[in-house]
């Protein structure tokens, strides 16, 4: 199965960081392509995107100042299929990408993604008080997986806080 290409560039407002691509994303070559994943709906409902985008348009979000990457590049059925070695390698690669591209905000799509990178155990939603990668703001948002039990409106509200942080009025 193919890896899903990162969408990274210099000068991005936000880079969204997931665990790894789903099997569906690996098949079609686009981020958050599983139809049960709520990522694109969350971005739209929170106001981060002006319209509802589809996974096939993921590269278009570079024009909005948003990029995509993962801590592990290999598509799997679930995070339980990621090995300790893949996480170890992924942490080093991800840290290098963030240091190279230096987005304004690294948004971790799920607490587990952030704890895998930082090895921190206590994490709250939202902006983190101490950056793991110096000079980059780090924001932890709920996973967009359809398996998440948190009500959609609560998830959207946390992403709205991210929007307020990047908008000229709020940040």
From TrEMBL:
Gene Ontology terms for molecular function: pyrimidine-specific mismatch base pair DNA N-glycosylase activity; uracil DNA N-glycosylase activity
SUPFAM superfamilies documented for this protein: Uracil-DNA glycosylase-like
Keyword line: DNA damage, DNA repair, Hydrolase
GO biological process, one term: base-excision repair, AP site formation
Top-level lineage group: Bacteria
InterPro entries reported for this sequence: MUG/TDG, Uracil-DNA_glycosylase-like, Uracil-DNA_glycosylase-like_sf
Record bears the keyword Hydrolase: yes
Residue span, Uracil-DNA glycosylase-like domain: 8-161
Stated name of the protein: Mismatch-specific DNA-glycosylase
Biological source species: Paenibacillus zeisoli
């Amino acid at each position: 199965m193919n890896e899903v290409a990162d969408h990274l560039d210099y000068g991005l407002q936000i880079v969204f960081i997931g665990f790894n691509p789903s099997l569906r994303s690996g098949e079609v070559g686009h981020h958050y392509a599983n139809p049960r994943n709520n990522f694109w709906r969350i971005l739209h409902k929170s106001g981060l995107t002006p319209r509802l985008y589809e996974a096939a348009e993921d590269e278009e979000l570079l024009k909005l100042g948003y990029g995509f990457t993962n801590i592990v590049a290999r598509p799997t059925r679930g995070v339980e299929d990621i090995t300790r070695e893949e996480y170890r390698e992924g942490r080093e690669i991800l840290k290098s990408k963030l240091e190279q591209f230096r987005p304004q905000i690294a948004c971790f799509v799920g607490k587990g993604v952030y704890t895998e990178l930082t090895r921190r155990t206590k994490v709250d939603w939202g902006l983190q008080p101490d950056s793991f990668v110096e000079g980059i703001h780090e924001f932890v948002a709920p996973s967009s997986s359809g398996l998440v039990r948190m009500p959609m409106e609560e998830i959207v509200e946390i992403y709205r806080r991210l929007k307020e942080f990047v908008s000229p009025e709020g940040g």
